[in-house]
UniProtKB/TrEMBL annotation:
InterPro entries in UniProt: DUF7144
UniProt KW Transmembrane keyword: yes
Protein name (Swiss-Prot/TrEMBL): DUF7144 domain-containing protein
Record organism: Streptomyces triticagri
Keyword annotations: Membrane, Transmembrane, Transmembrane helix
Length: 147
């Protein structure tokens, strides 16, 4: 019989690397959340500009409890979009402030898209779903400093 080479065993006294509390899903998710925040921000800015420029660019579908004129929605979306672009860039840069700020901006954007339902129902539902993913990804991620 051929003698097998003994596999090297780790030294029990050697220091081990600290385990990461992040799953690969959470680590990749926070990067994807940063990209989504950046893209959603740009799209919200464009959506806001369109709403400010023309009052009849979006057609209202039926009656809705929350009635704000379209110019008001345009400014809300423009401001939230600009903030989302900055926060998305911060998340991708690894800024410490960006995760908590991203949760706040994604929450506000989710509410704004819910209230924008009568103008663009399908788009608003898609945006709400993306905001829920962003909230999850930013909430479960822990940076190495927090471990």
């Amino acid at each position: 019989m051929a003698q097998q080479a003994a596999s090297p065993r780790p030294d029990p006294g050697a220091p081990r690397p600290a385990p990461s509390r992040n799953s690969p899903w959470a680590t990749g998710g926070v990067t994807f959340a940063g990209v989504l925040m950046l893209i959603n921000g740009v799209l919200a800015v464009l959506q806001g500009i369109a709403a400010i420029a023309e009052n009849d660019v979006y057609a209202r579908l039926g009656d809705y409890v929350y009635k704000i004129n379209l110019t008001g929605w345009g400014w809300i979306l423009l401001i939230l979009g600009a903030l989302a672009v900055v926060v998305g860039w911060g998340i991708l840069s690894g800024a410490a402030w960006a995760r908590a700020t991203g949760i706040a901006i994604a929450s506000l954007h989710l509410v704004a898209q819910f209230l924008f339902l009568p103008y663009q129902p399908v788009w608003s539902v898609v945006m709400v779903a993306l905001d829920v993913f962003i909230l999850w990804a930013l909430a479960v991620y822990r940076s190495e400093d927090e471990v």
